[in-house]
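tool_call: predict_structure(chain=1)
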Amino acid sequence: MKTFFLFLVTITATCIADAQNAPIQPKFEVASVRRADQCFGGRNSIDPGSVAFRGVPLKGVLMEAFKAKMEHIEGPSWLETDCFDISARIPEGATRDQLPAMLQALLAERFKLAAHKEDRPRSGYALVVENGGPKFKEDDPKANFMGRGARPGLTFYGASGHGALKGVMTMATLASNLSTQGYGPVQDLTGLTGKYDIDLTWTPDKAFEPRAVEVTAATATPPGADIPAPEGPSLFAALRESLGLRLERRTVQVQFVVIDHIERIPTEN
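tool_result:
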């Protein structure tokens, strides 16, 4: 009996030590959630001290919380029509990588969110490293919360028609951005786990329309004017030549977020 008692004490002490050593998931210090008077289609701002969503459908917040595309989130239809104003203060020392977990915790607390993820096969592309190896450098891991390129995005430069993707990102983020180009889902199979300085410019395929267009007074084309065909490498060639990566056609696993439960009316502030 004494031996058994000592065994229990040992196990208990070990569990306590493991719990004490487990990383603490950060949460927002203060958060306000209320139904928006008007939907703006999604306006948000994120800086080192706070995050704010203004008139955004709740699915937009879920997209940010799970880093998922709209079509990869399954839930009730009102997620796309009910809009909210959400503002929260980010705890000091938190990193941008921890923001999704903080948003998930907020949604669980205020909307009673319960969800799970499922991988489903889809026809698409695998992002892999060319035989010669990658042609980009790993970024400084000591970069601050909103450091250079912390929020990479895809943009098209007006009438020139060229696509560009620049910033510091993981290969998973690069694959996610490439998935918006109309060729199908792209899965990261490079095996590279760091954050890298990416600089990619290409000529989009004529068969696909750009998803985002940036037009200024300087780049706008007058009505009726001939738009010259953009010159430069295709996306596939630019990946090989600029980054030492390639896209291979294959069946890939696409992650879906399935909402098991979510309340339409959040708990009060």
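agent: Residues 120-218+230-255 form one domain. Proceeding to next step.
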